[in-house]
């Protein structure tokens, strides 16, 4: 029994050593020993073991760093975690902060789809439900979904949507594409009464390893929005989207 406990303790100490690299990406054995409160000779043994496993490598000047094998493991872990699992706590916090409904919109088959929703205490009745496609040419999230496309794809997307009976953009195709470019560059978009009458909406892009994976959106009754309120909500949405992106590795 004592042997098993000793083995478990050794494994725990080795994991502690790996986590120490979060605070010191490049570190000597002595620095690592101080971070995990371990005698230097013991730290040498653990570093040697982690090197044999391909998890740590020498980076010169007696310093060590994590190897790309750990990066591959983190990417695998992120792929195994659904986006909704990641965004859920951020969406709940944003709904509590703004007292408004929060939506996650993802591109599915090239079109914007509401895939998750957190209701505010004072519920805003929306014209779409989770799992339902949003209008492809209207709304803040649609701009960001299009913004992730290549330039030529955006034009085809608009033309195909119009050919299926979608209402052409009020600003014309070229004006609309220019708006999409602007929103793609800055990573957020604002719309007013484009989908629902009397609804103002703000959306910010979510990225995973630099790739657009969806948008965080807060639709609000337009009558409650003045310049100060709209800026407060816009800042909160952008901050939450940035935090989610950082969690996903961007």
Descriptive key words:
250 residues, alpha+beta, Arc Repressor Mutant, subunit A, Beta-Lactamase, 2 domains, 5-stranded antiparallel β-sheet, 3-stranded antiparallel β-sheet, 8 strands, 21% strand, elongated
Quick structural summary:
The chain has 250 residues and is an alpha+beta fold. It is built from nine helices and eight strands.
Characterization of this structure:
The structure is a single chain. The model is unreliable at 1-5 (pLDDT under 50). β7 (199-208) and β8 (211-221) form a beta hairpin. This protein is elongated. The chain has 250 residues and is an alpha+beta fold. It has helices at residues 2-23, 29-35, 40-52, 68-80, 83-98, 140-147, 151-163, 172-186, 227-248, and strands at residues 27-28, 56-60, 63-66, 102-108, 111-118, 188-192, 199-208, 211-221. The chain has two domains: 2-75, Winged helix-like DNA-binding domain superfamily/Winged helix DNA-binding domain (Arc Repressor Mutant, subunit A), CATH 1.10.10; 81-248, GAF domain (Beta-Lactamase), CATH 3.30.450.40.
């Amino acid at each position: 029994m004592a042997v098993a406990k000793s083995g478990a303790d050794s494994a725990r100490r080795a994991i502690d050593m790996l986590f120490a690299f979060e605070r010191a990406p490049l570190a000597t054995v002595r620095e690592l020993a101080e971070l995990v409160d371990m005698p230097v000779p013991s730290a040498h043994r653990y570093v040697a073991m982690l090197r044999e496993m391909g998890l740590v490598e020498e980076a010169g000047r007696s310093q060590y760093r994590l190897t790309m094998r750990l990066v591959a493991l983190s990417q695998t872990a992120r792929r195994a975690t659904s986006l909704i699992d990641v965004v859920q706590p951020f969406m709940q916090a944003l709904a509590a902060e703004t007292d408004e409904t929060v939506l996650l919109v993802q591109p599915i088959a090239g079109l914007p789809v509401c895939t998750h929703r957190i209701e505010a205490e004072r519920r805003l009745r929306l014209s779409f439900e989770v799992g339902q496609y949003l209008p492809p040419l209207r709304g803040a999230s649609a701009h960001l979904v299009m913004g992730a496309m290549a330039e030529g794809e955006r034009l085809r997307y608009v033309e195909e949507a119009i050919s299926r009976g979608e209402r052409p953009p009020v600003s014309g195709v070229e004006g609309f594409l220019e708006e999409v470019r602007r929103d793609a560059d800055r990573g957020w978009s604002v719309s007013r009464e484009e989908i629902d009458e009397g609804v103002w909406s703000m959306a910010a892009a979510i990225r995973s390893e630099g790739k657009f994976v969806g948008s965080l959106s807060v639709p609000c009754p337009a009558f409650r929005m003045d310049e100060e309120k709209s800026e407060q909500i816009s800042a909160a949405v952008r901050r939450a989207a940035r935090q989610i992106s950082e969690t996903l590795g961007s």
